[in-house]
From TrEMBL:
Basic and acidic residues composition-biased segments: 60-70
Signal peptide interval: none
Cited InterPro entries: Pet100
Organism encoding this protein: [Myrmecia] bisecta
One matching Pfam family: Pet100
Protein name: Uncharacterized protein
Stretches for region Disordered: 51-70
GO CC, alphabetical: mitochondrion
């Protein structure tokens, strides 16, 4: 009798382990509006502001030539 009680508990736990992730996936990703709202509300990657660009190869060559002439 006790073995069937524990068996029912294991079946219930297995059903929870399977049904909760499937249900949450359907609730979040099943509706495109929900998924878009979640993505927009989170900022996972925050990039720093862009700094000044390094000089181009032509500008560097001109600088080197100018320094060599001094």
């Amino acid at each position: 009798m006790a073995a069937s009680k524990w068996g029912a508990l294991e079946v219930f736990k297995f059903a929870c382990y399977i049904s909760i992730p499937i249900g949450m996936t359907y609730a979040v990703a099943g509706n495109a509006n929900n998924l878009e709202a979640i993505i927009k509300s989170r900022s996972y990657v925050v990039y720093p502001p862009e700094g000044p660009r390094p000089p181009s190869a032509e500008e560097m060559a001109a600088r080197i030539k100018k320094e060599q002439q001094k």
